[in-house]
């Protein structure tokens, strides 16, 4: 009798667990068109980056906070002969509470590292390498938080070098005032087994700033901040060692009203990326314009559509460097449908139309 009672309780527990699970799904499309006109630059060539990602994803949720997520990311580059140009896999565990977010696996970078600018990750990285493959944890809310993350970007093989990121960031807010920082260390190692003459290199960056942030219900948002960008670049090869510690001033000035806005990012200080001739983009994932003593990115944009299911944005970016003015135009469109978004569907919103009311 006792045995039957125990078995019955176990069966009821298993049934409760199954019934408590929630099954959700989402299918998303991310399109980007990024045209750069960098003729005359010593640091980067002109190019047009264009592609569309199809991202179906499934999620199993239990206890309201735990979930397992899995999906596939398919990239098609218009004009290429292949049916698919790249295939990635999204697959991660997530724990989400009001002031805790933890992820382990392969998951979208844009969802967790939105506070990192192009000094850390240039546009091509965001377009073609959209996943973190590692661990991320955030404690706190949007106004005050601390994060730590690890991203393994390359595994050592006989013909490929090992490399990975370790990063920390944080923010503290009091009224309209805030202080924040973003940082990472990129470790670029050897092959396995080691290749003779190949050593270990690192690229560390820390950006720290303080300023004010204003946002109201009438569609106005503004940020003004200043601080420093500190670097540590090292090639540890014994026959050709090099160590560089660049320091510079940074300033940010952003303002948006009713979907129309501008973002401004300034660097002035010691030239960076001293090892670029040796390693190029293998060691440096930020914008190559940081090789200059002075760089200003002036971004103008319009949020064409913004809703819980569709977002479209057009950018016209100006780059001031080496005494030249360079241009960039970018269109991004994201659309998704499914049950991942628990909010009530609000329909399409055109923020810029509020200017004409």
Describe the structure in brief.
By secondary structure, this protein is mainly beta. The chain is built from 3 helices and 17 strands. A hairpin with a 3-residue loop joins strand 15 (294-306) and strand 16 (310-321).
Structure in words:
The chain has 357 residues and is mainly beta. The chain has a domain at 24-42 and 143-356: Porin. Helices cover 8% and strands 57% of the residues. Strand 2 and strand 3 (66-76) form a beta hairpin. The longest helix is centred in the N-terminal third of the chain and has 19 residues, at 2-20.
Tell me the layout of helices and strands.
Elements: H1 2-20, E1 22-37, E2 47-62, E3 66-76, E4 86-97, E5 100-108, H2 123-128, E6 131-140, E7 145-154, E8 163-174, E9 177-188, E10 201-215, E11 220-235, E12 242-244, E13 247-257, E14 260-269, H3 276-279, E15 294-306, E16 310-321, E17 324-338
Antiparallel strand pairs: 1-2, 1-17, 2-3, 3-4, 4-5, 5-6, 6-7, 7-8, 8-9, 9-10, 10-11, 11-12, 11-13, 13-14, 14-15, 15-16, 16-17
Mean pLDDT: 91
Q: What Rg, in angstroms, do the CA atoms define?
A: 23 Å
CATH architecture level-2 label of the domain at 24-42 and 143-356: Beta Barrel
Looking at the structure, the CATH topology of the domain at 24-42 and 143-356 is: Porin
Secondary structure class reads mainly beta
CATH class categorisation of the domain at 24-42 and 143-356: Mainly Beta
Question: How many β-strand stretches?
Answer: 17
Query: Strand-residue fraction?
Result: over 45%
Q: Major sheet: order of its strands?
A: 1-2-3-4-5-6-7-8-9-10-11-13-14-15-16-17
- Could you estimate the helical fraction of the residues in percent? under 10%
Low-confidence stretches: 12-16
| Gap between N and C termini | 75 Å
Which term fits the overall shape? globular
